Amino acid sequence: MADVFLSYARTSADVAKRAAEALRELGYSVWFDEELPAHRAYADVIAAELDAAQAVLVLWSEAAAQSQWVRSEADRARAQAKLVQARVDSVPLPMPFDQIQCGDVRISEGGISGIGWRSVTAALGALIGGEGPAPFPSGPTAAPADRDPSVAVFPLRELGSSANDYLGAGIAEEIVTMLARIPGLAIVPTSASENPAARALALHADSFLEGSVRKSDERARISVRLVDASDGRALWSETFDRTLSDVFAVQDEIAGAVAAALGVKLLDRERRSIAHAASTDPTANDLAVRARHLARQELEVERRTAADLFREAIARDPEFALAFAGLADVLVQIARWRLPDWQDSAAEALEAASTAVKLAPNLADAHLALGAALSLSHEPKAASAFSRALELAPDDANVHYRTARFLVLAGDKAGAIRHYERAFELAPDDYRYVVFAIQEYQALGDRKGERSCLERSAAAIERHLRLNPSDVRALGHGAGVAALLGEPRQMQQMIDRAWALRPNDYGNLVTLACAAMLGKDEEQALELLDRAVDTGQGDREWLMQDNDLKPLHENPRFQQIVERMSD
């Protein structure tokens, strides 16, 4: 039985051989029809080998798209949930394969390469569960014997009503945030999977956390277990029957139990538990979990919904510090993008953040929100608020990320890079923490730092999009990275998909405009910026600070676009 069955048209035989060689160098066994035995019927052998393989790689070309054999093999693989696709020329994929991710591969004398090929090999690794390739050359692939233990955290499965889909994902996100603060432990957040053990191995995780949650009125049953990915042995498990007023405390307990099971210590500093800033009102906590889940998506509609949910939670509990901090944070982002009524949002954000700090002076999230709210009006005290958040949570990746964003606007690019890099060191699977550092390295003329950032960004975005293929933020940033890596087709595919998914989202359109500029497509960039400003939103200051857009500053059309933005 081969790991990979290779399907292709006869005109692409040379590409197929190169692909087989490249996969065998990665340690995979490969079958394709040059190994067809003479004494057996062609169709019988093809069917048997395809069914036995763990993954099927289809190499689409103009001839392959017309081939009944290739389409039949692709359809059979799709039905068995083991189809991986690569395109070797510009042919449009036939239906329904055009709805499935497909990597574009580049053929040269040196073999097969390109960001699309890295996506292909990553997908094969996820299906087969082998080591797979490093996304970029980075020296020996073997992990050091003394590396930190790693845990893949899956969203908790929802049992019962689908109306509560946010709860399982929200609880998992909070657990990831807490575990990520523990020195000596690597955390791999991931999406739902039918086979978490195989997914965990494909992500190179030593163990994985999975479970379920069932909500009934004001109570929830949360069942979780920590499993050794190599042999399926349960390292720890427990079921919590609690009211929703205890939901944040349960997350704290789970993080502590996971740390103990893996032999690392969850220090008091790392457990600056949000449980202490939670509410005693079950419904208020439930609203906050949902709001925090939406806010993490960093999109306009989700932010507005999150703000309303935080307000509902505060109405039920006027001393709910976590909800005040969360409300302030999303309102700052609404004000930052100059969304409708942004000045009212800025004022409400400052009031909510000040209240959060007063209610929970040792909550890093509260000081983070206060610093962000103060920075809207360029208050000098903003820097002190960010510094206090760092003192309270020095190992929180989000605190470093937000501090870096503040320093960008303050013009401290070197300081921003330090905090971006620290955030990515703490959470290497969050692409945001490294992709934003690219243009800061560019602004400083640090080519070595820029290249390192590009490579790490490409790998992190690939991992993220495998798990979240419709994430427009990741698609937008991925388009920019693809442009800088010399992959124009991949760039345009990502722009087109993200634009189609969120055609009227200001932040999405600006991110795509930056990607288009990196791809030297000024006309497309201006069209996207024009549409972005047509939404009536936008932050002129941030737009002028963006290094990707600086080549447009002397362009008359760009100047007209900026003039239409409100101050």
Topology summary:
Elements: E1 4-7, H1 13-25, E2 30-31, H2 42-52, E3 55-60, H3 62-66, H4 68-79, E4 83-87, E5 103-104, E6 106-108, E7 111-113, H5 115-128, E8 150-153, E9 157-159, H6 165-179, E10 186-189, H7 196-202, E11 207-216, E12 219-228, E13 234-243, H8 247-261, H9 282-295, H10 300-316, H11 321-336, H12 342-359, H13 364-375, H14 381-392, H15 397-409, H16 413-426, H17 432-435, H18 437-443, H19 447-467, H20 472-484, H21 488-501, H22 506-518, H23 522-534, H24 540-545, H25 556-563
Parallel strand pairs: 1-2, 1-3, 3-4, 4-5, 8-10, 8-11, 9-11
Antiparallel strand pairs: 6-7, 11-12, 12-13
Helix pairs in contact: 5-7, 5-19, 6-8, 6-9, 9-10, 9-11, 10-11, 11-12, 11-13, 12-13, 13-14, 13-15, 14-15, 15-16, 16-18, 18-19, 19-20, 20-21, 20-22, 21-22, 22-23, 23-25
CATH homologous superfamily label of the domain at 4-128 = Toll/interleukin-1 receptor homology (TIR) domain
Given the helix and strand composition, which structural class is it?
A: alpha/beta
CATH 2nd-level architecture of the domain at 4-128:
3-Layer(aba) Sandwich
The coarse overall form would be globular
The N- and C-terminal alpha carbons lie at a distance of: 65 Å
CATH topology of the domain at 4-128: Rossmann fold
For the record, the CATH class of the domain at 4-128 is Alpha Beta
Low-pLDDT runs:
130-146
So how many helices? 25
| Share of β-strand residues | 5-15%
Mean pLDDT: 81
By DSSP, the count of extended strands is 13
Q: Main β-sheet: number of strands, strand sense, barrel status? A: 6 strands, mixed
